[in-house]
Design goal:
311 residues; Arc Repressor Mutant, subunit A; D-Maltodextrin-Binding Protein, domain 2; five-stranded mixed beta sheet; 34% helix
Length: 311
């Protein structure tokens, strides 16, 4: 009698190994996200890691599963055939996670968080208070500073950074788009254009004893350059805002610092100052498995609270 052959794990083909449950769920999530970048953010991985895993799957099965272009990501015919089964695996895994989620709803421990001083004070602190109310066992160690923080050396779980080039070895998610505008005390006359700032006293962040150029852009595409002369400067934005409220000068600061009750008005509606760091605040977390699940949960909360659309 012929015995049924037993196939050991070591004899599985590379295609079998490439299409295990984890690979199928990854494939389904990428197809659902519509881009490697968005899938990477949702999975807590770097985009490069997602690209490598997809390349390994396609190489093992010998078929292209995704049709790529510079602007979009779609499925090939082979990818569409695989998608139905991969989606079933993903839905089963997600159902299992939902069944266990109640055990993780109450987050705890200590999160070490870094953020620029202005963003930390005016945007992040109120959100941290709301998040902590949902998770009373959670604690924060906060580093609100404009100093460039070494994320790994200082043992941070989460960093918020104003940058247009996030580090590639961290998972970066945009959480807030902002603009730097010119604000003055309520009752001041609106300026006709940025050139009107020439010769006016400005309150500037940083070391600005000498006049410096400012490049302004309007929502309609217009652009103007002007030399900005500081009457006061430094690293304390709140102090400069207070001086502006008392009529000392015109303060240039991110719009997320200004609320209707601040006593400041936008003196150049439609205009914003171009800054070298970019116009987005990003949240940076370590990729899985090293990254903190609590940190990722906080990032999701911040993105939802600030209504950041999916990329």
């Amino acid at each position: 009698m012929t015995k049924t052959a037993k196939i050991s794990r070591s004899r599985l083909t590379s295609a079998d190994a490439a299409l295990d449950a984890n690979a199928l769920e990854l494939f389904a999530r990428i197809a659902q996200a519509g881009s490697f970048a968005q899938a990477a953010r949702e999975l807590g991985l770097t985009r490069a890691a997602v690209s490598r895993r997809v390349a390994a799957i396609e190489a093992a099965v010998g078929l292209a599963l995704f049709a790529r272009s510079t602007r979009s990501l779609g499925l090939t015919e082979a990818g569409r055939r695989l998608h139905a089964r991969a989606r079933a695996v993903h839905e089963a895994a997600e159902g299992a996670r939902l069944a266990l989620r109640s055990q993780r709803d109450q987050l705890g421990g200590t999160l070490r968080i870094s953020a620029p001083l202005s963003f930390g004070r005016h945007v992040l602190a109120p959100l941290l208070a709301r998040f902590q109310a949902l998770h009373p066992a959670l604690r924060y160690e906060l580093f609100f500073t404009d100093r460039r923080v070494d994320l790994l050396r200082e043992g941070l779980d989460l960093a918020f950074r104003i940058t247009e080039r996030p580090p590639e070895d961290w998972v970066a998610q945009p959480v807030l788009r902002f603009a730097v505008r010119a604000y003055g005390a309520a009752g001041q006359a609106v300026l006709p254009s940025p050139r009107a700032l020439a010769g006016l006293p400005c309150l500037l962040i940083g070391q600005n004893e000498e006049a410096r150029p400012g490049h302004w852009h309007h929502a309609d595409g217009a652009a103007e350059g002007v030399m900005l002369q500081a009457v006061a400067w430094g690293n304390d934005m709140d102090s400069l805002m207070e001086m502006a409220r008392h009529g000392t000068g015109i303060v240039l600061l991110p719009d997320f610092c200004v609320v209707p009750a601040s006593g400041l008005i936008d003196l150049l509606p439609g205009w914003c100052l171009r800054v070298d760091q970019g116009e987005w605040v990003h949240a940076l977390t370590l990729p899985q498995p090293a990254g903190s699940e609590t940190a990722r949960a906080l990032v999701r909360f911040v993105r939802d609270a600030l209504a950041v659309p999916a990329a």
